Each structure stands twice: as C-alpha cells, then as structure tokens.
C-alpha cells in the first residue's frame, strides 16, 4: 500500500496491490481517489479489500489464512496514527469478511521507510566497504518500542548504499512466522519486480503500489476500469 498526494487538486490516491498466488506472479490492484477525510478513505479501503479477497477466493478456493501488509509512505511521526486508526479500521473491515474465522487470521503490518539517514558499512582489512546485498541489521540502532530492522537489498559500487527501514507495527495471531523469516521474505520479495532483472530497494508489491498510485494521480486522474485490475497495467 502506498499513497500519492496531489496538492493541486487536494486529493490523495491510495495504491493497493494484492498478491493472488503463492509465486507472487498474479496481482489484483485497487486505487481509490479520495477527496474527503479518513471516513471516506476507510470506506474505500473496505471496498478494495472486499474485491481483492473475493478475487483470491475465486483463484484459490478459500480466503487467505495470513495477510502481510507492507505500508509505504508513512513517516515516524505517523506510526501511532496508522496503527491506532488506519489498521484498526482495516481489521474491523476484515472481521466483517472473515466472521468467526477472524480469530485465526494471521495479520502483520510492516511500515516501509526509504528516506533513511543511517548508513551501514562492513570492515574489510583497513577499509570500509558497502555491505553485501541481503545484509540485515536488527539491533543497536533500531527503535526500542518496535520490532524493526534495516535491510540492504541492492549492490552498489559507487557511493554508500542506503538501507531501507522496515517497522512491524502490527503482529496478530501469527506467532508461527518469526522475525528472521519476515526479514528473509522481505529480501526475497525485492527480487520479484518484473521491470528489473536484479533487486530493488523495497518488496515488489510495495513498488507496484507506488507505480499504481503515481500513474493514477499524475496521469489518469480517474480510477482505472475494474476490467484491468487483475493486470499489471501500471508498469
């Protein structure tokens, strides 16, 4: 999930991209244009998740037993607001869909932050080098009140590499997946962006959502037709 803000029109575009299969090759997208406040955004998100979960059930025969949400476009000052407002309303919407099964639904929400001032190095002899792709730092410089980590997913041979910061602000009914496994999943998802043969800075679904929100807000100026929402038309 990512957001594009158009200050000229005073509207926001919420880009949401849902994976539909276990190999992360099929997606369903939804991009509401929101002109009102949080109430309208909540209503539109509920509609989007309903449509996506129906599509998932059509393809797989059942609803997912686990949902992992990567949320981009959130600063540190907005973490509590996202957790106590946006995610709370989202879980209320999911409870309407899942009913009694909601108590067994695994749900994780991870905030993705690309604007990071921290830098990581590895010592090689007497010199400092960029860390290798896949390097994770989850201690010392992380936030004390959250489960978070820094990940270097790209190889950089000029300048210093900028890690991406991931902050898990919600983890419900999903004790079977440990933090190390979340880190591995996140790194593997950076390999799956169709428009690039290597790795990117964020998980592929997260960058798809960014491309979707930007396209709708900057160029289309209207919500895409539902007929193409199961295609990666925004690449």
TrEMBL record:
InterPro entries, per database record: Piwi, RNaseH-like_sf, RNaseH_sf
Protein name as catalogued: Piwi domain-containing protein
Gene Ontology MF term list: nucleic acid binding
Pfam family for this entry, one: Piwi
Domain of life assignment: Eukaryota
PROSITE patterns membership: PIWI
Residue stretches making up the Piwi domain: 1-221
Record SMART domains: Piwi
UniProt organism field: Macrostomum lignano
